[in-house]
Amino acid sequence: MQVSRDYFSCANCHNKDFKRIYNFSISFHSVNFLDELIYDKTTDMLYQCTKCGRTFTPEQIEQTLNEIKKSRKKGR
């Protein structure tokens, strides 16, 4: 049985190597019944191409991998 592998690649330069980037933030908002501020911590994760610097979200990568999978199924 032959095994083939397709990679997610950068749409700009077709590189397949990426590094993970995290952005940490806190958002504040007030609530009518409290005098204090409420805050939410968030961590955003992106993947950056090591060649051209373009960034991709995990959702964009997953969507592209699903498209590759669908095209493979059609090619059977």
Task: Describe this protein's structure.
The protein has one helix spanning 58-74; strands at 18-30, 37-49, 55-56. The protein starts with 17 loop residues before the first strand and ends with a helix. The chain has 76 residues and is of the alpha+beta class. The chain is elongated. 22% of the residues lie in helices and 37% in strands. It has a three-stranded antiparallel sheet. The chain has one domain.
Give the topology, please.
Blueprint: E1 18-30, E2 37-49, E3 55-56, H1 58-74
Antiparallel strand pairs: 1-2, 2-3
The structure class reads: alpha+beta
Beta fraction of the residues? 35-45%
Ends distance: 14 Å
> Can you tell me the overall shape?
elongated
**Helix percentage range:** 10-25%
Total helical elements? 1
Instruction: Say how many strands there are.
Output: 3
Low-confidence stretches: none
Element pattern in H and E: EEEH
Query: How many domains, as an integer?
Result: 1
Report mean pLDDT, rounded to a whole number: 92
Main β-sheet, in a few words?
3 strands, antiparallel
**Widest sheet, order of strands:** 1-2-3
Oligomer: single chain
Rg from Cα: 19 Å
